[in-house]
Every structure is written in C-alpha cells, then in structure tokens.
C-alpha cells in the first residue's frame, strides 16, 4: 500500500522500427530510486552553483603576471612577486618606483586603504548607516582633513620639488592608476563602495589616525579625574602613579559638580573603547624593540629586532615591499594608503618603532558664558569660540549636522560623545599633533635614505606627533635610540593626567623643549638598547610624563639580553621575540599566596593554589597556571575596584595602561583604601578579598571547564582570530575572517598577545605583534619576518592567510633583497611600461 503511494509513471515514446510508430512504455520507480535522482540533482545544482561562485570570486583576483602601460611613466618598471606575495620593484628613478608601488599596493590592499581613509575622515556612515555615526562624529571633530590641508599648504605647496613630495605624489598617482585600470576588490561590490580617486590629503589623514591611536590620554585622563574628584589622591595614587618605584627605565645619555563632570568624561573613555573595537582598522598599542651592537653578536655587526603591537585585523596592518632604483635599495613595512615606510632598512642601516607613550594631550575644562554658549572665560575676559559646520551623510537616513567648536585650548569634545553633549562646561582637547603641520611622511622618507646614525638623528628630530621610539642600527656599527616627539613644557604645578582648568591660564603649556633634551642614546657601553614602552630615564629636565606600560616586558628583556653573551645570532633572538614568560607574576604570587586564608578555600581552590605556587610565569599552550591566574586576577579586580567605579567605568579601567602598570603594586599594598567595599557596612581587608577571589575563580573555572584541573589548558581559552571588517556579516562573515588559532603568550609577555579580562573566562586576543622582524646588518639583504596573516587583501589569493599558522607557531620567513634569490621563488611578474 505504501509502495503504491509513491508510484510514478513516465511515458516514453520510442520509435518502433517495424511499425514506424510510437509505443508507450510505462516505468515504475521505487521511492529509493526517486530519492537517488533528487539527491543527484541537488548535488549537480550545488556543484554548478559552487563552480559559478568560485569563478565569480576569482574574477576579482588581480593578475600578477602581465604587462601594463602606465601614463606618465618615464621608463619600464619590473615587479617580481616572491613566494609570499611580497612585491620587489625595480625602477630607474624614484618617481617611477613609487608610481609602480602605489599601483601594486592598491592591487593588494585597496579595500583596506578605502576604509582607512573613511574611518579617519569620519565617512563610515555613508556605507554602514547610523551605527557608524558615533565614530564619524568623533573623527570629524578631530578634524584630520583640516589638519591635512594645513600641512599641505605649509609643507607641500611651498616645496613641490622636495624628494618626499615627489615620491608621495607618484604613489598617489599609482593608486589612482589602479582604480582606473584594475579590478575593484570584492568588498567594494558587497558593501556598495564607489571607486573614487585618492589624494595626498588622504595619506595625511591616515597619518592623523595613527597619531590619535598613540594618544593614550583620550582613554585615561577622564578616568583619572573621576577617581581624583570622587575619592581623592589617596585612591588615585595607588592605581595611577607615573612609574612604580623599582621598575626598569630606559637608559639615556647623560568636588561635587566637578565629580559629575568627571563621571561623564569617564564615559567618554568607554564610548571611545567601543568605537575602537568596532573600527575597521585597528588602533596601535605598544611594541618591543631592541638593538645589539656588533660586540654582542656572532656576525660582529648590529642586529635589530622589532615587533610592533597593534590590534589584529584582516588584512594584516603592515604591507611589505622591496623598492630599488639607482642609489636606493630598501625593504619596508607600509601602512595602507601611505607612501613611505614606517619601518624598514636599506643596505646601509634601518630602524624599528615602538610607541614613546609620552602624554601629548591635555584636556581643559572651560568656563562657559551663561549668557552666550559660544564664549568661554579666559583670565579676565570672555573669548569667542571658533565654529564650523560638518555634515555627516548617513546611508538610508537623513544627514547629521555637527557644529565643531574650539577654544584657544583646542577642539571642544562635548558634542562627540553622547553623555557629554548636555554638559554646560565645555571640555577642550589640547593636542601636540594640532599645534604643528605633520612632518611624518618627510621623517619616514629621510629615514629610508639615511646612511648612518647622524643622518637618522637629523631625520627624526623634526617629528612633532605622534611620539615614537626609533631604534637604529647601521653597517658602520652604530646603534641608537631616540624618543622622537615635540615635548611641551608645562607649569610645575600641573598634573597633565587630570582635567585642567582652562579659565585661569595657569595650566597652559609654557613652551617647548629642544630635541636635544629628548630621551636618547648613541652606542651605549653595555652594547644593548631596548624599548618596551617603558619610562625613559631623566635627561636632566625631569621625567617625561606619559602612559608607559607595565615593566613586565622590560624586566624579561633585561633578563634575557643583559648578559655576558657575545655571540648572539638572529635565530637565537627569534626565540627571545617569541618568549612567553612573565617574571612579574611569579613575584606577585609569592607575596600574596601566604596571606590567603587556606582553611577557607574550597577543595578546587586549594588545588589551584598548589598549581600557582611553583609557576614561573610561562604561558605555553599546555600550561594550566595562566588559566587560573587570569581568572583569579579578574575576581580580584571585581572585588577591589568595581564598587568604587561602577560597571561602565570599570569596563574601560580594567585594561587601562595606568591600572595595568600599577596593578601589582596595588595588590601588594595591604593598607590601600581600594580593598574596602564602599557598598557594605563592614571594612573588608586585603586578605579577605584575596581569599574570596580565589574561591570565586575556582568555582567559575569549574563551571566553565569542568572539575578536572588538568584540563584547564591555556590553549582552550586563549585564541586568536583575525577579523575582517565584513566578518560581522551573517553566514559569509567567517569566510573573510582568519582563525581562530590557539596561541601561547599573554598579557605583557614579550610575545604580547593581550586580551580584555571579563566574566567569560575566554581570552580572545585583541592585540599583539603585527610583525616579528629581525635584521642582521652583517647581511641586510637576508632579514627575516612574519606577518599575522598574509600580504594580500584578496580572499581568493593564496597570500590572504599563508603566514597565519607560521605566525601563531612563532615561525618566520625571509625578507629577500637579493634578486637572484627572489627569482628562484618567483610567483609573478608585472612589467609596467610607459
């Protein structure tokens, strides 16, 4: 009966050879035969669809084996691609060289360039709608395009024949040639992005974004003011001191209304953290770098090591290229949309970067005129604010109008953040970046052409902002470090980490230090110099105020490098750059474990403490201790500072550099007022809080990972995913992302794979080394490096993620500069002809 329900009749007319007519043949199919036909049909349909999608996606992939004509090119340019997709460009003159580079850079990274300029210019809402308005309002207020126009009027228009100007313009010309001739990236189609030409202004606004992400004051000074106004200096000093006593420094040559305002300002830091998290281009965070002189190396020449710490994204932040023409041979790392390398080396010398971390931003609370909202008080009179209008276009919505106001102290920030808009007291942002035209592109051009330490010193001396540590090595044997930035002189009474008074004039900067007074050193006797974003020593004018990170990495670098070893090799330094041990955590646990109430611990908490007692601070994949430690740390934070700060401020405070820098000192301080919970009647002690926190940590880990403590390995909770801006899309989003990968390392280990600590117990890496690069100047043509994912931004390219596993496992590959070696691994060749 069931069978008869599935009967199907198919009549097939077949020719009868004898009767010349058709006979009806009835075919009866079973349900299984029918199902088989349906499955086969679906498979064929899927294969056809999949093949179509594959060929459609491949249609966006650029051709790296071709010949092209470029209008205005003077001579033929040859581009060879190696086995990791790095372009090696050979030209007869610099303008052709940078013209071709602009083309190939756009070919691999045009979508990244486009989002970078839109983010910095406050034009994301044109693509992504109202959700991007908050970001656009903030960056429009910062006014990077106005600053770029000022820079071009000051430096470019007046010096059109300057070599860096010609190189920069040629690069922009190359980007636009690709937009005209090349294939637009897949993301342009998916996001509906119009293809529009680039200008030199775009390169400068991208440089402006770089400067903003280096300015930690945006995230910190509002929180410091909130703590100071609400709880006083006793509370603030325990979590916000300039540099903890005993931490390693870099050697050099010889109340109520105010509290409410501060609370709203603290919300600015939280909103800013949200903007950065959602931004399609990551902020910069820190870095490691060191140089060993020839008397410390096996080759007898200096070795340079650098790993820049930047939030991870896909494509990778850095783009590598090797450029050669008469008199210029250079291998560099470039940011999207910028013509000159921020890192690199030639046959003569090279440099690495870390963030200086100097405080180059001050916030001023202005006194508003109650009769005129467009005036503020200064000393003895009302001053008019400068005002201009911005229009933010929003996809699918009405335009948003924004009035940007500024006082003598800088741009007023109130209208950029939701919870500050109603504050009657304007908050002005004074920023070194806005006081001068940007010399950044000129600095990087001159560094790429520097042949020795003297020329490099002259090049970095003109940098105003952002503050950068330049580490230099050359084939002459010199090693050097300069903390480059324009450093302001502030009144002795001013604490630049608090909101200042703009009405009296007493808190205003009073001048500038000469570059000769910046922290720096040339050829130190020890034969080693390093920076890990830690505090430089005093150059005789006082310590430079700044947002220097904890000394953990600095301690470990000194442990490993400040030895009598005199035969270092690049391979041995590769082990150092991948080191995952923090010496600070061992010392902290040694101090606090003995005071915990052992009799009040749960059985699992006791097992946890038994694991932590012998821990050396290592963060390897199989280690259990870091899983316990960071969970313990989170509960300490919650039970110590959250009651004073509240949920919103706590979210930002936990990963603030000042708190991270002072966290260990706070936990070791028995009489700190932070131990008491202000929401309870009893007075809690450090011992009680630590005991409670360890019990809570063990209970939460049991719930998350089970009762078997041996299965709490670090690899289960510490992972790295490189997220693409379109990775948020449903279904197809994961197609663009790369990862996740279980990774070693942790907070402030040399291999600094950092993360926010929250209630989840999952530590998704937010930032870390954006490359790991080592160059021995005995053989500058054979450096080594690795990118987090790959060179290409094209999802169908084999170089989209071909370095991802290599990076996660601490490996490296060659930075080739020898043409014969390049030709042996060549995977593509483009000839650009006039």
TrEMBL record:
Cofactor(s) listed: Ca(2+)
TM region(s), chain numbering: 38-57
Assigned keywords, A-Z: Calcium, Hydrolase, Membrane, Metal-binding, Transmembrane, Transmembrane helix, Zymogen
GO annotation (BP), single: antibiotic biosynthetic process
Binding site for Ca(2+): 221, 359, 361-362, 496
Residues annotated as the enzyme's active site: 287 (nucleophile)
Source taxon at top rank: Bacteria
Entry's cofactor comment: Binds 1 Ca(2+) ion per dimer.
Pfam families (alphabetical): Penicil_amidase
Molecular function per GO: hydrolase activity, acting on carbon-nitrogen (but not peptide) bonds, in linear amides; metal ion binding
Family in the record: Belongs to the peptidase S45 family.
Protein name: Penicillin acylase family protein
């Amino acid at each position: 009966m069931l069978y008869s329900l599935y009967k199907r009749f198919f009549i097939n007319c077949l020719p009868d050879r004898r009767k010349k007519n058709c006979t009806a043949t009835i075919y009866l199919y079973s349900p299984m035969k029918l199902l088989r036909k349906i499955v086969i049909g679906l498979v064929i349909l899927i294969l056809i669809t999949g093949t179509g999608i594959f060929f459609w996606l491949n249609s966006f992939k650029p051709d790296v084996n071709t010949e092209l004509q470029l209008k205005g090119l003077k001579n033929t340019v040859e581009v060879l691609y190696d086995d990791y997709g790095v372009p090696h460009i050979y030209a007869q003159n610099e303008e052709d060289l940078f013209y071709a580079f602009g083309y190939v850079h756009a070919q691999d990274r045009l979508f990244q360039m486009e989002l970078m300029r839109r983010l910095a210019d406050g034009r994301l809402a044109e693509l992504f709608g109202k959700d991007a308005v908050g970001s656009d309002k903030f960056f429009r207020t910062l006014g990077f395009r106005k600053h770029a126009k000022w820079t071009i009027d000051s430096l470019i228009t007046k010096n059109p024949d300057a070599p860096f100007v010609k190189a920069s313009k040629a690069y922009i010309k190359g980007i636009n040639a690709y937009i005209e001739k090349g294939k637009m990236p897949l993301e342009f189609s998916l996001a509906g992005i119009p293809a529009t030409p680039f200008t030199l202004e775009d390169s400068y606004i991208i440089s402006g974004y770089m400067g903003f992400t280096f300015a930690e004051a945006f995230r910190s000074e509002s929180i410091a003011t909130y703590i100071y106004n609400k709880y006083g200096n006793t509370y603030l000093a325990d979590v916000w001191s300039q540099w903890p006593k005993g931490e390693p420094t870099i050697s050099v040559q010889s109340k109520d209304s105010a509290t409410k305002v501060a609370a709203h300002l603290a919300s600015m830091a939280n909103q800013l953290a949200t903007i950065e998290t959602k931004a399609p281009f990551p902020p910069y965070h820190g870095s490691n770098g060191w140089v060993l002189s020839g008397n410390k190396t096996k080759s007898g020449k200096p070795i340079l090591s650098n790993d820049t710490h930047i939030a991870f994204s896909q494509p990778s932040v850095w783009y590598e290229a090797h450029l050669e023409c008469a008199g210029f041979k250079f291998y560099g790392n470039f940011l999207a949309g910028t013509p000159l390398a921020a890192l690199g080396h030639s046959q003569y010398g090279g440099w690495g970067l870390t963030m200086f971390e100097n405080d180059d931003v001050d916030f001023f609370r202005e006194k508003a005129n109650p009769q005129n909202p467009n005036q503020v008080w200064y000393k003895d009179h009302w001053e008019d604010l400068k005002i201009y209008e911005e229009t933010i276009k929003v996809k699918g919505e009405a335009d948003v109008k924004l009035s940007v106001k500024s006082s003598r102290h800088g741009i007023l920030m109130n209208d950029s953040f939701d919870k500050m808009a109603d504050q009657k007291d304007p908050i002005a942002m004074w920023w070194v970046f806005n006081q001068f035209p940007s010399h950044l592109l000129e600095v990087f051009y001159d560094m790429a052409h520097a042949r020795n330490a003297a020329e490099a010193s002259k090049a970095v001396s003109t940098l105003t902002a952002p503050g950068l540590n330049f580490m230099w090595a050359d084939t002459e044997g010199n090693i050097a470090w300069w903390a480059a930035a324009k450093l302001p002189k502030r009144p002795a009474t001013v604490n630049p980490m608090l909101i200042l008074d703009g009405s009296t004039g007493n808190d205003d900067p009073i001048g500038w230090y000469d570059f000769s007074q910046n922290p720096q050193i040339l050829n130190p006797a020890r034969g080693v110099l390093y920076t890990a974003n830690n505090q430089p020593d005093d150059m005789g004018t006082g310590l430079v105020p700044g947002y220097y990170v904890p000394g953990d990495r600095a301690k470990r670098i000194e442990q490993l490098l400040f030895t009598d070893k005199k035969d270092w090799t690049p391979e041995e330094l590769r082990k150092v750059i991948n080191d995952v041990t923090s010496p600070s955590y061992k010392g902290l646990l040694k101090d606090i474990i003995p005071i915990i109430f052992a009799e009040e611990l749960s059985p699992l908490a006791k097992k946890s403490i038994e694991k932590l007692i012998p821990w050396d601070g290592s963060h390897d994949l199989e280690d259990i201790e870091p899983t316990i430690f960071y969970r313990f740390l989170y509960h300490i934070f919650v039970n110590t500072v959250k009651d004073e700060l509240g949920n919103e401020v706590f979210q930002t405070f936990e990963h603030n550099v000042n708190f991270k820098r002072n966290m260990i000192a706070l936990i070791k301080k028995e009489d700190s007022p932070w131990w008491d919970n202000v929401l309870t009647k009893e007075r809690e002690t450090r011992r009680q809080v630590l005991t409670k926190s360890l019990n809570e940590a063990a209970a939460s880990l049991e719930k998350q990972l089970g009762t078997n403590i041996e299965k709490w390995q670090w690899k289960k909770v510490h992972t790295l995913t490189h997220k693409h801006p379109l990775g948020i899309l449903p279904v197809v989003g994961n197609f663009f992302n790369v990862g996740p990968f279980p990774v070693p390392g942790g907070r402030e280990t040399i291999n600094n794979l950092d993360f926010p600590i929250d209630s989840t117990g999952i530590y998704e890496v937010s930032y870390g080394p954006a490359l790991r690069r080592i160059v021995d100047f005995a053989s500058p043509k054979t450096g080594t490096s690795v990118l987090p994912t790959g060179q290409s931004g094209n999802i169908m390219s084999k170089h989209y993620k071909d370095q991802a596993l290599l990076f996660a496992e601490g490996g490296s590959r060659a930075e080739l500069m020898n043409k014969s070696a390049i030709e042996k691994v060549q995977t593509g060749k483009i000839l650009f002809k006039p």
